[in-house]
Amino acid sequence: MLDFKRFELKDKPLIDAYFAEHHYEASDNCFTTLYMWQDPYGIRWAEEDGVLYILGGGKRDPFLLPPFAGKDAKFVDGLERAKEWFKQNNLKFQLKGVNPIIMERMQKLCPDCYEFTPDRDNFEYIYKSQDLINLSGKKLRQKKNHLNQFRMQYTNYEYMPLTEDLFADCIATAESWVETHHEEGIEDELEAIKLLFEHWDELGLVGGAIKLFGRVEAFTIGEPLNDRIALIHIEKANPTIRGLYQAINNEFIRHEFANYEFINREEDMGLPGLRKAKESYHPDHFAEKYDAVYSDICPLPAE
């Protein structure tokens, strides 16, 4: 029986080693993401015979991510063990976060075994870093106009790297956001932000903030996902200040991630406003995710 447990900071080197085996593009394949969201989303992990298993969905709708095979293990063995686990627990077989490469491998292993459904709400937006820095061309002209307007109106704004002396101010900014917004899960996000600040160095995070008139009005937190992609975990800005979101996005990437080819700004969760905002930056591509269940014509027993 797989022994699923909480993510602890001491587990980071082991988890990182599994993710380093491949150039994953999705935020699911990042220790920090799993660590910061493990309580709201019931995320746990287990390891057996050189394979990493990640459980999500809590008790309400449990699922596994595709198994992560270590250097001396095989994906197919992990997949078979995952099937056994679902059967042992009287649960339907359900994988989430299946990327196109894994989907192709599963189809080759058994063409009639699985049904795949695109999880569009959780597709992650991948942008070219230089596009976000330069905002060149007709497609991004409006973004550049907002940024230029902000810089002209707030000539005294100050961008600075996030350091411990700014953490309290950033938390105050996030708490103000919670008071004026009522989206589902927003308080979980506030607790996640506090957790990141509490373990900043251990998690290897970087961040940036913009101060106006001595007050932090925007901040963002990210980290390298691999040697080509940087990942943005958190971005908060005062929505009443025109161009501030464009400014914190542009300044952070320009200062911290200019040497990375791509920036992952995560999913839109199916929220219309967030989808419109992310699409308006014209992503280079998506980190696509699919759900996988047994096909109705599957020759393998689903129970």
Automatic annotation (TrEMBL):
Domain of life, per lineage: Bacteria
InterPro entries to which the protein is assigned, alphabetical: Acyl_CoA_acyltransferase (IPR016181), LPG_synthase_C (IPR024320), UCP018688 (IPR016732)
Phosphatidylglycerol lysyltransferase C-terminal domain location: 25-292
SUPFAM superfamilies: Acyl-CoA N-acyltransferases (Nat)
The protein, known as: DUF2156 domain-containing protein
Source species of the chain: Veillonella magna
